[in-house]
Backbone:
């Protein structure tokens, strides 16, 4: 090859290499851009500030929009979260400043003005995404009419100019804000048509913040220093109080139990009255009523415990973080399907400890115990959302995806777990033989009945977690981001510990009065914390500014599902801890 031909070839190859390197170095996938590159911007939704669940598609309000409007393909989690990202006319190329750029000229008819006015009255905000960064702005503002002397009147204004402030570091975008200009507005107080020129400006500034920390500002915005100090102080105070309570209960309980075990062989009638639980050794391991239902509760409770612990692991690994669009909902759906094998195995193996036949019915109950109520409540909420035209309404395709996922992944894994549980079944380990006929339970005072024990078993754990429950509800039904998942995980562990200890104590009290029907009661006492959680949801709603049928339905519908899940989880913890305790004391008695 001659030098001239080599030179020509190099002149062809080098620009191609530079072009390919440019495309590799700058793209929306790796969030790196060159000056003038197109950066994806999507409009998402609008809604009243006081009702987080009541959101509508962005173009439900007569904003300027492209023709045609292109819907972004979204994941299952994004659809479940109510995100509906669509294309926009805004052009925010990388590091290109713009001043008073015209978005469009639009004639607003009377109906359009009325829609905007209702949005301003209800304090509507809009949400957009720029380079996967969420940001918000308000539609308009309300001012008092100072010229009216007879009575106070209000005037409503629509922002017709939006300024985008973008911060960048090198070739990456770090932060973005959208601010409606209060000096460039249009009066929409009356239902009169008006011509509006919508404009926008873009201002780029540098920052030293690193790209890896660009999501931290959303956490900082929801955890002001004063509130964070109060949060930590209250958390430490709660932990110390709980530990002291657990230590006191354990000390008193173990001392009483030692005395019971010592007085077993004395033959003293007065002492024997204090240890009535020893009389019912032939009934305490009698199988409960509704055996299949009980096994299903154990299976689903264990499944949900596994799911929650898996979520905390994902959070600790950094896979789930605030405003990672749709990942939480996606993780919940996938993990519920995958952990169904745990439900099937636990249900079948526990059932086969009582009988080798009929485990299929227990597994079937486990498959619909939580998914059934969730599907019914979800269907009702979807009907309400459709009637409102809200983004929370699931499209038909999404509903079919969920049904197919349940039919072809959840159910097969549930059955697989059931088969494994049946194949590896084992006999029920009871230290004492069960008598043929049950012993009669003596009459008990009202304060030893199930409702009173449920109140005690639920109130103490609830009082330990009420602070974190407030922050959790503020995150679910507000705009506060829960920024300390480690604290939430610690409180979850403490909740399990105190539930287990109280369940053991209440079971011991029940057995001491010769009441051997403790199986179901340990589930009810352990899960009763969920009743207080739902009651606190009612209190939280009445103290908030939320209103309307849609928001009311979503708050109480989804909280009912969440509290039901906690009932199953904590009920399982209550029974498992009580079973370990009962086996321990009767094994100790048998050894004497």
Residues:
């Amino acid at each position: 090859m001659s030098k001239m031909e080599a030179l020509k070839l190099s002149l062809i190859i080098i620009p191609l290499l530079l072009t390919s390197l440019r495309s590799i170095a700058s793209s929306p996938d790796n969030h790196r851009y060159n000056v003038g590159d197109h950066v994806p911007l999507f409009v998402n939704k609008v809604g009243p500030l006081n009702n987080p669940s009541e959101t509508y598609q962005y173009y439900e309000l007569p904003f300027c929009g492209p023709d045609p409007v292109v819907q972004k393909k979204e994941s299952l989690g994004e659809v479940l979260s109510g995100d509906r990202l669509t294309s926009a006319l805004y052009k925010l190329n990388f590091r290109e400043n713009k001043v008073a750029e015209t978005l469009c000229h639009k004639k607003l008819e009377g109906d359009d003005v009325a829609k905007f006015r209702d949005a301003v009255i209800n304090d509507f905000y809009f949400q957009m995404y720029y380079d996967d960064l969420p940001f918000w702005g308000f539609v308009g503002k309300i001012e008092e009419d100072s010229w009216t002397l007879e009575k106070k009147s209000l005037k409503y204004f629509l922002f017709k100019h939006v300024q985008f402030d973008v911060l960048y570091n090198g070739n990456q975008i770090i932060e973005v804000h959208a601010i409606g200009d209060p000096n460039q507005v249009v009066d929409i107080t009356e239902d009169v048509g008006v011509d509006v020129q919508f404009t926008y400006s873009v201002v780029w500034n540098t920052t030293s913040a690193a790209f890896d920390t660009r999501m931290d500002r959303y956490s900082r915005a929801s955890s002001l220093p004063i509130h964070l100090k109060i949060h930590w102080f209250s958390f430490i105070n709660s932990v110390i109080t709980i530990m002291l309570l657990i230590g006191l209960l354990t000390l008193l309980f173990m001392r009483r139990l030692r005395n019971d075990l010592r007085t077993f062989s004395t033959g003293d009638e007065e002492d024997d009255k204090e240890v009535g639980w020893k009389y019912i050794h032939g009934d305490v391991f009698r199988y409960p009523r509704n055996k299949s239902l009980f096994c299903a509760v154990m299976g689903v409770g264990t499944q949900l415990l596994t799911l929650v612990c898996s979520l905390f692991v994902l959070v600790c690994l950094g896979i789930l973080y605030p405003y990672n669009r749709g990942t939480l909902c996606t993780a919940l759906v996938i993990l519920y399907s995958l952990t169904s094998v745990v439900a099937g195995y636990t249900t079948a193996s526990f059932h086969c400890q009582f009988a080798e036949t009929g485990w299929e019915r227990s597994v079937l109950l486990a498959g619909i115990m939580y998914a059934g109520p969730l599907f019914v409540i979800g269907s009702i909420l979807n009907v309400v959302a459709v009637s409102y035209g809200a983004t929370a309404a699931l499209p038909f395709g999404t509903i079919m995806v969920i049904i197919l996922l349940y039919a072809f992944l959840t159910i097969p894994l549930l059955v697989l777990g059931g088969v494994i549980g049946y194949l590896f079944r084992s006999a029920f380990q009871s230290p004492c033989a069960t008598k043929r006929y049950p012993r009669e339970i003596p009459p008990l005072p009202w304060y030893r009945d199930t409702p009173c024990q449920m109140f005690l078993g639920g109130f103490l754990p609830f009082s330990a977690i009420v602070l974190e429950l407030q922050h959790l509800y503020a995150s679910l039904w507000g705009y506060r981001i829960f920024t300390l998942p480690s604290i939430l995980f610690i409180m979850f562990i403490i909740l399990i510990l105190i539930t287990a200890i109280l369940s053991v104590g209440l079971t011991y009290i029940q057995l001491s009065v010769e009441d051997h029907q403790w199986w179901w009661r340990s589930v009810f006492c352990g899960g009763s914390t969920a009743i207080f959680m739902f009651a606190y949801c009612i209190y939280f709603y009445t103290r908030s500014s939320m209103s309307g049928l849609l928001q009311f339905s979503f708050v109480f519908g989804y909280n009912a599902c969440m509290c039901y899940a906690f009932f199953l989880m904590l009920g399982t913890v209550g029974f498992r801890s009580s079973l370990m305790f009962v086996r321990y004391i009767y094994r100790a008695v048998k050894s004497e």
Remarks:
- Residues 356 and 422 are 8 Å apart (CA to CA).
- Residues 29-215 form one domain.
